[in-house]
Automatic annotation (TrEMBL):
<dbReference type="Pfam" id="PF18074">
    <property type="entry name" value="PriA_C"/>
</dbReference>
<dbReference type="InterPro" id="IPR001650">
    <property type="entry name" value="Helicase_C-like"/>
</dbReference>
<keyword id="KW-0413">Isomerase</keyword>
<feature type="binding site">
    <location>
        <position position="470"/>
    </location>
    <ligand>
        <name>Zn(2+) 1</name>
    </ligand>
</feature>
<keyword id="KW-0238">DNA-binding</keyword>
<keyword id="KW-0067">ATP-binding</keyword>
<dbReference type="InterPro" id="IPR011545">
    <property type="entry name" value="DEAD/DEAH_box_helicase_dom"/>
</dbReference>
<keyword id="KW-0235">DNA replication</keyword>
<dbReference type="GO" id="GO:0003677">
    <property type="term" value="F:DNA binding"/>
</dbReference>
<dbReference type="GO" id="GO:1990077">
    <property type="term" value="C:primosome complex"/>
</dbReference>
<dbReference type="InterPro" id="IPR041222">
    <property type="entry name" value="PriA_3primeBD"/>
</dbReference>
<keyword id="KW-0347">Helicase</keyword>
<keyword id="KW-0547">Nucleotide-binding</keyword>
<feature type="domain" description="Helicase ATP-binding">
    <location>
        <begin position="203"/>
        <end position="369"/>
    </location>
</feature>
<dbReference type="InterPro" id="IPR040498">
    <property type="entry name" value="PriA_CRR"/>
</dbReference>
<dbReference type="GO" id="GO:0006310">
    <property type="term" value="P:DNA recombination"/>
</dbReference>
<keyword id="KW-0862">Zinc</keyword>
Length: 720
């Protein structure tokens, strides 16, 4: 009798054993359907030796039900699942869920039904139907998705289908994608670019693991350089994965991709429709998808024939996933390349210190693009000392920045103001009683958004209308906005430069590919004089007429005592500065700060990257932080504060005593309340020699907690 051990997607149930019925052919990696009680579940057949479990006697085994019509997972991907679970102290089930993203959908046929408006009217119009019909104008999706968009039940929409107001459209999820061509429009590379590209191309053809750090200043043409590696992979008939940090930024990237390869790549991100998701997943697993551009989740897909991974803006914080499996896509990308035996390119103008250290040790091959493409100069950078150059009260732009803005407007050039704060004001309070608007579910203020007339929590998504009266003292007309967000800076610009055309660019305003495309067209076409934006505008954009960048508050990121704060500030300011002077006209950057003497700010102003990295290296060495030592965090949460605190204390009380591991806390986590859960944190600082994961597993494995308590592990956390 043949047995099969399954990895199933529920960690609490553990691996389960089944009997393989006669005539069914399974192997390690096969995706199968199995009975569990009265239900059917999906599982992945695993090598029993790699996933030990109690042996169930033959007689008790139930037979597998069937095999899903998808290729078995390759051993390379199975090793990646094992490694990710092991390294990040997560369950293999949780990692596997990221691979088989749409389990149920895979069982289905290759076609799916979507619905769209016919233009017809229902026999009886209700307010609900009216609202649904307005919301669904121009949409086509499954009933469930349409219900989500319209905010009505599926029943309401089924009614509209019966009335002929919505009509079905069959969508073929196996229809092929257009083929990309390696030689569609080949650029002429500079000598530096050519040198790097040749190394990449050779590595792609060598079919072996080769990690690269592509370290090039902003505007040096990193993209064109790694495009040559993509071209080589296309010629070899192998798949390519390009990870981008922010899917809102892909618009500009997609345009360049099409110019180079003649067609768009396959996209993968969390807001794909289910038909798009199913089509992409099938094409990726069959090998039909040539180049996949995606967010970090694209890393775990079952590529049939992967030949290259590129991580662009590899230093970006958004590659770190902060709930569920807490992984860093940059590091997992390198591991995937290792298992697949293929090259991986980490591209950045401001690499993470960890990546630079790997290059210094010779583990990554570093390729440098030291100057901007086409002879453009790097911008001049100066600081504006806010303790000396004071903006008027309730204003945030100091005189030198105001003068520079006026000057650009007169010359018909573009300016960019950077402030990493969405909305109008970060805090709203009552001038009578001092009441502050706070999120009931998070340790966070509600942020006023004037454009959408909302008070919003940026952590849980809660939104309310600003009240007319204070909820505490009942006074009316008493609410005051404290501090600036980008919307308020935009107002200030409008006041100073009434003729300027101002655009606010944040994830609120650029929330769809269409809006992103529209913004890029306007900015490139000279229809915008001043862009006011968050970190969304710091990377990826190339506007030749943009000659001034103003950093409204460089100190913002430095608050809070986080060890990575300096690096993050350096990266953000260097990136946004990199938007200035990319065309033929020189760029100027003004950094507003109250601490011009701080090491980060001084290094930025001096354009001395090495000085910054040296200071940062010393700080890290001193703190035993990566790359010199290791940090990890244990986060304990519950909806009940006392329950969370007690669980954290229990964990703290059983801490192991080891020479090379130091354990701090528990203490309230930086977000002590998040989405209705109270959070406590223990921090672990270990020498490089220590096996932190084993220590944590043994320690936490010995404890049990009430069902309402969640214990999460964060290896290499971003803030500590
Ligand atoms: P980075 O990603 O390093 O900031 P980009 O790849 O965006 O730089 O390149 C900066 C600009 O130079 C872009 O407009 C790009 O199209 C252009 N460019 C770079 N390399 C070439 C090349 N070999 N031929 C023509 N244009 C290039
Ligand atoms: Zn909240």
């Amino acid at each position: 009798m043949q047995r099969a051990r399954l990895l199933i997607f529920n960690a609490a149930l553990g691996p389960l054993d089944y009997r393989v019925p006669d005539g069914m052919e399974v192997q390690a990696g096969s995706v199968v359907v199995a009975p569990l009680g009265p239900r059917q579940i999906i599982g992945i057949v695993w090598d029993p030796e790699r996933m030990p479990s109690e042996t169930v006697p033959d007689a008790k085994l139930r037979p597998l039900i069937g095999l899903l019509p998808v290729p078995p997972l390759k051993p390379e991907l199975m090793r990646l699942i094992e490694w990710t679970a092991d390294y990040y102290c997560a369950s293999m089930a949780a990692v596997a869920r990221m691979v088989i993203t749409s389990g149920g959908a895979l069982k289905g046929p290759a076609t799916m039904t979507e619905y769209r408006l016919t233009g017809g009217m229902p026999e009886r119009m209700t307010p609900q139907r009216q609202a649904a019909m307005e919301a669904l104008e121009g949409e086509q999706a499954t009933i469930r998705e349409l219900a989500g968009i319209a905010g009505v039940s599926e029943g309401v929409l089924r009614g509209l289908v019966n009335q002929g107001v919505l009509e079905p459209v069959e969508v073929d999820c196996d229809r092929p994608y257009p083929r990309a061509r390696a030689d569609f429009d080949e650029p002429r590379l500079s000598d530096d670019q050519r040198e790097a590209a040749d190394r990449f191309v050779a590595a792609v053809k060598a079919h072996d693991f080769a990690p690269f750090l592509l370290d090039g200043v902003t505007g040096s043409g990193k993209t064109e350089t790694y495009f040559e590696a993509i071209a080589a992979a296309i010629e070899e008939d192998r798949q390519v994965l390009v990870l981008l940090p922010e899917i809102a930024l892909t618009e500009a990237f997609l345009k360049r991709f099409e110019d180079r390869f003649g067609t768009a790549p396959v996209l993968w991100h969390s807001s794909l429709k289910s038909t798009e998701r199913r089509r992409a997943w099938r094409a990726i697993s069959s090998g039909e998808a040539q180049v996949v551009v995606g967010a970090r989740s694209a890393l775990f897909l079952p590529y049939a024939n992967l030949g290259l991974i590129v991580v662009d803006e590899a230093h970006e914080v958004s590659f770190k996933q902060d709930d569920g499996v807490r992984y860093n896509a940059r590091d997992v990308a390198v591991m995937r390349a290792h298992f697949e035996r293929i090259p991986v390119i980490l591209a950045s103008a401001t690499p993470a210190l960890e990546s630079l250290a790997m290059a210094d040790q010779g583990i990554y091959e570093k390729l440098v693009l030291p100057s901007r493409f086409g002879g453009a100069q790097l911008p001049t950078i100066e600081t504006v000392d806010l303790t000396k150059e004071k903006p008027p009260s309730q204003h945030w732009l100091a005189p030198p920045l105001v003068e520079a803005l006026k000057d650009r407007l007169e010359r018909g050039e573009q300016s960019l103001l950077f402030l990493n704060r969405r909305g109008y004001a970060p805090l709203t309070l009552c001038r009578h009683c001092g009441y502050r608007f706070k999120c009931p579910h998070c340790s966070a203020w509600l942020v006023e958004h004037r454009l959408s007339q909302r008070l919003a929590c940026h952590h849980c998504g809660l939104e309310t209308s600003p009240p007319d009266t204070c909820p505490e003292c009942g006074e009316s007309d008493c609410l005051v906005a404290c501090g600036p967000g980008v919307e308020r800076i935009a107002d200030e610009v409008a006041e100073i430069l009434p003729d300027a055309r101002v655009a606010v660019v944040t994830s609120d305003t650029l929330n769809s590919p269409e809006k992103a495309a529209e913004f890029i067209a306007q900015a490139e076409g000279g229809a915008i004089d001043v862009i006011v934006g968050t970190q969304l505008v710091t990377k990826g954009f190339h506007f030749p007429e943009l000659t001034l960048v103003g950093v409204v508050d460089a100190d913002l990121g430095l608050e809070g005592g986080d060890l990575r704060a300096a690096e993050r500030t350096y990266q953000q300011v260097a990136q946004v500065a990199g938007r200035a002077g990319r065309g033929s006209k020189p760029g100027e950057v003004l950094i507003q700060t109250r601490h011009p003497e701080a090491a980060v700010i001084a290094a930025l102003a001096a354009g001395d990257r090495d000085a910054f990295y040296e200071a940062e290296t010393e700080a890290r060495r001193h703190a035993g932080a990566p790359p010199f030592g290791r940090w990890a965090a244990i986060i304990v949460s519950s909806e009940d504060d006392a329950e969370a605190r007690e669980a954290a204390n229990r964990i703290g009380a059983t801490r192991p005593m080891l020479d090379d591991v130091q354990i701090l806390g528990p203490a309230p986590a930086p977000m002590a309340l998040l989405r209705g859960r109270y959070r406590y944190r223990l921090l672990i600082n270990a020498r490089r020699s220590a096996n932190v994961q084993d220590v944590i597993r043994q320690w936490l494995g010995a404890l049990n907690h009430p069902p309402g308590v969640r214990v999460g592990v964060d290896i290499d956390p971003y803030s500590f």
